[in-house]
Amino acid sequence: MENKSKRVLAQVPATKTPISVLLIYPFFKLKHDRSIFRFPPLGVAYIASALKAAGYRADILDCTFLTRKEALERARSAGADIIGIYSMITMFGDSLELARELKGYTGLLAAGGPLPTTDPGLFLKEFDVVVCGEGESTMVALARAFEKNISLITVPGVAMPGGPDKEARFSGKREPEQNLDALAFPARELLPNADYMVFGKKKYGYSITSLMSMRGCPFECDFCSSAVFGRSYRERSPKNVVDEVEQALAIGYEHIHFGDDVFTMKKSRLLAVCSEITRRGLKFSWECLGRVDSLDPEMALAMKAAGCEKMYFGIESGSGAVLKLMNKKISTQKAREAVEAAKAAGIRTGAFFILFYPGETDATVLETIRYALSLPLDYLAFSVPYPIPGTGLYERLKSRQIGQWKQTDGSVFGHKLTYKSEFSGFKMKFGILKGSASFMLKKIPGIFGKAALKLFEWPTDAALKLMK
Ligand code: B12
């Protein structure tokens, strides 16, 4: 495989400096897409700014608003020396397809992102190299090695073909960046901001972009992939975070989604971020994800005062036993207190629940639905378990896998079972529909809503129990 990379290196004209890198985010929306979330891809934007800071040319091809044909034409005509393609579980097929179609149009094809990080071997038939983990320094080092015609396997943090038994060969670990304030802000100017703004305004009434204020998550939830950032917890300073908020607001965004796994993890830091926002008098609204064991009334009030409008909690189950199976390390009581604290502060609340977790019973599924309905939630989403490579859940279910996880259309009907479960796919869809319909009925004000919910619950509980 060394030979292959040498072969492609030879195709790059010696005069063409600095070399150019095209970074592709291969998300293509489905024809009938009801999903409510769509954020500019920060990973490729971080890599682009690192490359630019190192003196390279970098561009981003975000496929979110393009057809496959348009994306391919743009990528082919870019004439980039290196093409890097992001991938995660739902983008696996498209990332491989693009790599296949782009062979011969560039000197080097690199893959990166959560799925290539967990399973580089899946990508090495179509790509020359896989970047494992955080990509900023590794991509800069790869561009340098490529430019200087040095073997790419000398760059820490990559995998290439040609290991023992024709498997992936690893160059060695690259330590994750410890000083996150040292990272250049993501190159948002290279993203299709106007399209995202139109989308946001149509969907929610305001434009929205995401921002990561920390990296890593020390918790070990059974279903969650921590491939890229690992279990360490690294945070940016409040000043650095709010500087980036200002950069996003200057582009014209009105609302920020803090995508951190545990934005509320450290009370002192959270309060410092909130007071930095208030001190600067910034007028914008925001939302975040949070763990239920890291929110108290004081934090919720400070967040509201700093513009927090919505908060999403990963509660996942209403059964203590199932929460144990998931290794969530939270209790239903704590979850209730956190949702109530947010609600009391005037923050709209949302929660995610997984139904039919391996090891669940009909009784715990119904317990979760009832529990979810008992919380003061403005939004909720029920989902089925999706085993992601690299997680404990995946390890337990991999021998029972029956299909690839493809992108869903965001609707309650869109879920697809990817492994052989003790529950049928039909039953799972029924459970999700039942839970979602009950939530809608609960929202009907007055006695009519209450009566309708009661009438709906009894036969659907019975039907769920009867189903295989
Ligand atoms: C925001 C977010 C979303 C957004 C959209 C993503 C976006 N455009 O911003 C929404 C809400 C729509 C979403 C949806 C889904 N998501 Co999501 N999402 C995230 C989240 C919380 C943050 C993403 C982010 O901005 N990260 C910050 C950047 C800096 O990190 P990064 O993208 O990983 O980039 C770094 C490296 O990966 C690498 N890199 C990135 N790109 C490239 C490219 C190249 C060429 C190279 C070399 C390197 C490289 O370098 C970057 C900088 O260090 C992550 C969790 C997380 N902590 O990352 C989950 C995560 C990416 N999502 C995940 C999943 C499973 C989903 C869904 C499938 C969930 C669902 N139930 O449907 C859907 C899929 C939707 C789809 N598009 O098909 C998983 C992916 C797991 C996997 N192994 O594939 C993650 C990791 C969550 C988790 N912990 O399990 N998601």
Tell me what you see in this structure.
This protein is α/β, with parallel strands linked by helices and 468 residues long. The chain has two domains: 2-170, Rossmann fold (3-Layer(aba) Sandwich), CATH 3.40.50; 180-466, TIM Barrel, CATH 3.20.20. 40% of the residues lie in helices and 15% in strands. It contains 16 helices and 15 strands. It has helices at residues 2-10, 42-53, 68-77, 92-102, 114-118, 136-147, 193-204, 238-251, 267-279, 297-305, 320-325, 332-344, 362-374, 392-397, 425-443, 446-466, and strands at residues 20-25, 57-62, 82-86, 108-112, 129-131, 158-161, 168-170, 208-211, 214-215, 234-235, 255-258, 285-290, 308-316, 348-354, 379-383. The strands form three sheets. Strands 2-1-3-4-5-6-7 form a seven-stranded mixed sheet, sandwiched between helices. Helix 13 (362-374) runs parallel beside helix 15 (425-443) and helix 15 (425-443) runs antiparallel to helix 16. The protein is globular, with a radius of gyration of 23 Å. The N and C termini lie far apart (50 Å). Residues 1-14 have low confidence and may be disordered. The site of cobalamin has 42 residues, from helix 2, strand 3, strand 4, helix 5 and helix 6.
Summary keywords:
2 domains, 15 strands, TIM Barrel, disordered N terminus, Rossmann fold, 468 residues
CATH topology of the largest domain: TIM Barrel
Assembly of the depicted chains: single chain
Cα radius of gyration in angstroms: 23 Å
Number of alpha- plus pi-helical segments: 16
Any idea of the CATH class of the largest domain? Alpha Beta
CATH superfamily of the largest domain: Aldolase class I
Task: Estimate nothing, just give the exact number of structural domains.
Answer: 2
Instruction: Identify the CATH architecture of the largest domain.
Output: Alpha-Beta Barrel
Largest sheet: 7 strands, mixed
Through-space gap between termini: 50 Å
Mean pLDDT: 91
Ligand roster: cobalamin
Question: Judging from the principal axes of the Cα atoms, what is the shape?
Answer: globular
DSSP strand (E) fraction? Answer: 15-25%
Helix/strand structural class:
alpha/beta
Poorly predicted ranges (pLDDT <50, ≥5 residues)? 1-14
The strand order across the widest sheet is 2-1-3-4-5-6-7
Count the beta strands: 15
Binned, the helix content reads 25-40%
